[in-house]
């Protein structure tokens, strides 16, 4: 790969030979890996899914790579990031409930080895830019203590894009604290007020890339703030979207454009620094779009925070000169927990030292079009589930689910009042209340003809869908396929037996950084 890079081509013949004699020794066959994670980016928010939002860089990069069309993430920020970093389901880290709130004293268990540690063991330089959201109440939880050589970003789940301030109500103190959340390494970074985070983070990423020594393999985890709420964007990104009448959607579209530009800038930096020919670039969302903040998952049902396809079916693609079948669409079942074994495999590293993985190495499925080794996917099991932003009618549906629970489906022993979902092949089984179940209308279109509510189709406590033929989850078929239902309830019961108890501690008021402090470790 070095031979193809412009800078080496320009060197005298002898130097090139000299450099390449190092290739084997220094492991330059190991690809550089750049993982770009978008936040709350919905199914219908990318150009190549037909969105009215323009994403020329994402469209072009994915067209020359492999678009993942049967790709799943978790319905929320912390869970998706947790599985990306550990390769394990939520039930296996005790984090099956919700996200980590800023004052909760916990983090991904410290006995879980994380992806950057494994990449480091394989000889990689490891850098992270952007949102962490995997816990920070004590220093051992920070990204720099969990495998990243460098870190620049924020530790909580969201904040102001310009001031980098996060406001958190601390009920025990009867106050709402607004404080900075931005760090360079472990130090608070105070000098970036006014810098829009999408630009700030992409500048840091491009600077890491241009300073990188090409003979050392690079692992860069770029966790963008975009396009999570709050809806904030510099005016210049809004200009192309005067045709969007919904103000939220218009701001959101501008934020997506800024993100698309950031991805373009990162790609350009990889090309200019001569890394591109030996790079695998992955783009993924962390969960479905948030319809309350401009996102859209049309035509899928539900949204972020739900187990419907709108919450968990993710936008994703892989692009790389190393792909064997570029320009294809993969229909193979792939999950965010699969990246850890896949990337460690590409790195020539070992997962021997991890706890048992729930993810699979899916590189041959992506690169060569082989069948995915993943046959089943546990979306989640969360006995404490609550919808913090319920959509209209959901209280009534929750009651319905509880009333008819348990009668005909008790053989497996699985409590079907519990919020859970599992996928096997084309089948998806949901139990309990899956979360907001509306088909939100296509942006700019009239809702009345496209939206159905529970009045038409009341939810049951056990529901089965054929996702391959019914990706919109409109035809509930549990009555037609009782054997499939039995099997999947058995599988849920099997998984639930291996679940750790939920860890979801109460807020610790000692989190308060005071009027002049910054969010960060307090314990
Ligand atoms: C909390 O603060 C508000 C406004 O500062 C005040 O009105 C209220 O009495 C306080 N409540 C308690 C329990 O201290
Ligand atoms: C991309 O790079 C251009 C040129 O350096 C810069 O003006 C722009 O702000 C960058 N965009 C982002 C989102 O970083
Ligand atoms: C991992 O385990 C396998 C099987 O036990 C062994 O063959 C291999 O050498 C181990 N790899 C490392 C890097 O320890
Ligand atoms: C079943 O699960 C629901 C929801 O988590 C819970 O409220 C209920 O107590 C459970 N029932 C039994 C028998 O465990
Ligand atoms: C939506 O449909 C209703 C009823 O058909 C109609 O009165 C209304 O003008 C439509 N609105 C838009 C924005 O198309």
TrEMBL record:
Listed cofactors: Ca(2+)
UniProt entry tagged with the keyword Aminoacyl-tRNA synthetase: no
SUPFAM superfamilies, alphabetized: Alkaline phosphatase-like
Keywords: Calcium, Glycoprotein, Hydrolase, Metal-binding, Signal
Region (Disordered): 500-523
GO terms of molecular function: metal ion binding; sulfuric ester hydrolase activity
Domain Sulfatase N-terminal: start-end pairs: 31-348
Signal peptide residues on this chain, from the entry's feature table: 1-27
One Pfam family from the record: Sulfatase
Similarity annotation: Belongs to the sulfatase family.
Full protein name: Arylsulfatase B
Species the sequence originates in: Sphaeramia orbicularis
